[in-house]
Task: structure prediction
Amino acid sequence: MHQVYTLSFLFMLFGFSLMGQPGPSPTKALLTLEFVHPETGAHFPSLPFRLQRVETGESWQFATDKEGKANCLLPINSRYELYVRESNLIANINIEAGEFQEHRIQIPFDGEGSPVVERKEELCHLKIQLIDHQQRPYSARERLRLQNKATGEDSLLWIEGGRLEIDLPKHSRYILSFAKAPNYAEIVLGGQDYWEEQVLFERKKGYDKFPSRSHGLVNFRYVDLEGNSVPNEPVEALDRASGERFTAFTNKGGLAQLLLPLGRTYLFSTAYNPHFEEREIVCAEGYALYELDLLYQAPSSADWLKSFAQQAALNRLNDSLRADLLAQAAANLKAQQAAEEKQKAVDPMLSKLDLRGIKTFKIRKLIERKSQILKDSLQLNPKVLEHHYNKPVLASLLRLQDAWEKRIIVTDVTASMSPYFEEILLWHSLNLMKATDNKYVFFNDGDNEMNSHKVLGRTGGLYYCQGKVIQLDQIIGRLKEASGVRRAGGDAPENDIEALLAAQALRTDSLEEIILIADAFSPVRDMALLYQLNCPIRVILCGWEEGNEFYPKTPLPNPEYLTIAHRTGGSVHTLTKDLWDLSKKDDGDVIELSGLRFLLKNHQFIKN
Result:
């Protein structure tokens, strides 16, 4: 981000110092001052004058030579007042930072008691110079509107070669406006006879908007991962306080310009990366304009849509394969049941729990039996969940039980998560050791609502419960209700953020960790609401390492869950891995998980 300072003094730069005269240095600039009568052009030889440094009060005495000129060597990066005959302040001079500067400045001066002074004693001779972003003179021809701030009177003038000289009343304020750049700058005139201002104003190809004293300008340049400009991309800034939205589209050069009212905080979004950055748009002290250049590098919308189409094709393939598998399973049901009975005899932990059609008390007995077996197994082998049973939810929760003493467990209970339901119940049963009182939020993406009727943030299908292990029946009943046959989510995306926001509202203690148990392959429907989360989210991903038997053909993991943890200061956990401090990752960092690489760009993880 750079601030733009519009009002300061401009000097004419020359490449060489005068022969025989003192030269400039890295810390001092050489000024050649020439006093000239504004009407006759006459010079003023042997004229004494004083330059006083405003910041320190230091002063230097000089006098013009026989040609009415004087060479002055003065410290750079300072402002000076020019006095003639000690008390007559006739000009202000500003020397910017920069080594070996040489400036020739012509000072309009008509001598004491001159008729010109009597006639123009209430006017200040103003000189305006336009400069570019490299602080060089900008020599274009511009139409300027100069408006008196007190009276409202204005004039339309032409700036020729980037310069304008005009006499204006002393002790007045003027607003400068250019074509497509209203309320661009303000000039304040004091009691001086002469005043110079430099105004940073430059027209560049593709840049159609300019900042003003009331609006900051954001220049948003969108390039893809190969560095090519991306046109026709929407860019949005959301005012957090008022909800007002400002939108622009990138031009063929990949540039979108947003004019935003100053003094507000905005969330920036692109089509497939909502609210990726938050910024306060406010001028720093001493600056009149605000201009921000943002370079945004990410896949284009076309690339995103292409990846979505590939994933959708994979989902259709899974649906087809799943139908075939179900048909085959029905034909071989008796053989499978016999095989399962043999498995149970060897290790009941290998049997699958299906909530459908089983009474709650039977589920409870099965869970209690399995939890006891699990306790005994863990005493013999603490890694049995990771290396033998492949249970990511239990492995993560037990691995981190000391770090997460108080928990609100948010669980996706759509169809793809059915292989993991019993792990939630087993975890609750195992907590008999600590008698922990857990809170639960089960979500199913809308209670089978039609996809076209789902509203962002109000999709529904949220079920709450809370209790100790003695209330296991209540937890089982709520889970069965939330995941019932008629409560499938419908489409692939799930309302994870809506459920997390509901959990956040239940949070009464800052020590309560919010744990999201999610399908590693499901898209998140409501990432646009992520900015409303204000506490760390701990994400347990099911299927990332061990696979998810719901999918005959395993799809690609969804990096949106990495983004959720990154932006909230949370963490990600799989069957065997724990990724902490994701919020500390910087733009351009790459993380590896189970042989896959993910690149962080604009606070969003992208498969690399």
